[in-house]
Amino acid sequence: MLAGDLYDPMDAEIVADQEQTLAWMERYNAAGQTIAQRHALLAELFASVGPGANIRAPFHCDYGYNITLGDGVFMNFGCVILDVVAVSIGDRTMIGPHVKIFAADHPRDAETRKTGLEFGRPVVIGKDVWIGGGAIIVPGVTIGDGAVIGAGAVVTRDVPAGATAVGNPARVKS
Question: Which residues form the Maltose/galactoside acetyltransferase domain (predicted)?
Fold first, then answer.
C-alpha cells in the first residue's frame, strides 16, 4: 500500500489499522477537548506534527500515520484526509472547512476495479498555502509554497508555487 502498489483494502492488517484509527477519531472528535489535548492526540497518531498545528474537530482520516503536519498548520472544521500513502502539509498552511484531501485512488479499467484492489498516490502541500473551504485535492497532486486554492476548487493537477488556482477543474489564474 505505502509503495503505491495495488492492495486489498479488506486485508486483515489494513482493516485492523482502520479500526484503531476509528477509535482514535472517536477520542479526537469528542466534545470538550482543548487545543493542547487535540495536539497531543495528533502527535500520538500522525507521522509528525509541528508545534502549533491545529485541526478543528470533526476530523476524519483513513490511518493518520501517513500524515505529516508542519509548524502552525491550521485545518478548520470537517476536513477529511484519505491517507493510504503519504500526505504532507507544510508549515503555516491554512485549510478551510470541509476540505477533502484524497491520496486513495482506484484503477481506471473496470476489470481491475472489479477485483476491489486500490492504490494510492502521495499528496504534497507546501508551506504558506491557503486552501479555501470545500476544496478537493485529488491523489498525486503537489501544491507549491505560497499557493492559493479557491473555495470549492477541485485540484486535479499540480499547482506551482505562488499561483492561485480556482474552479472545477482548478485552473491557475493568469
Answer: 1-51
Catalytic residue list contains 39: no
Which is it for strands 130-131 and 148-149: parallel, antiparallel or unpaired?
parallel
Contacts for 71-77 with beta carbons within 8 Å, 24 or more apart? 75/99, 76/133
| Tens-digit pLDDT profile for residues 22-76 | 999 999 999 999 999 999 999 999 999 999 999 999 999 999 999 999 999 999 9
Active-site residue identified among 39, 60, 98, 106: 106
Which domains does the chain show, CATH number per domain? Answer: 12-172 (2.160.10.10)
- The answer on pLDDT for 3 being more than 90 is no
**Torsion sign (Cα): 17, 19, 21, 24:** negative
DSSP state of 40: H
**Residue whose C-alpha cell reads 479526537 in the numeric block:** 28
Spatial distance between the Cα atoms of 101 and 104, rounded to a whole number of angstroms? 9
pLDDT, residue 79, reads: 98
Burial level of 63, CB count in 10 A (0-12/13-18/19+)?
Answer: buried
Q: What percent of the chain has pLDDT over 70?
A: 100
Q: Is the pTM of this model over 0.85?
A: yes
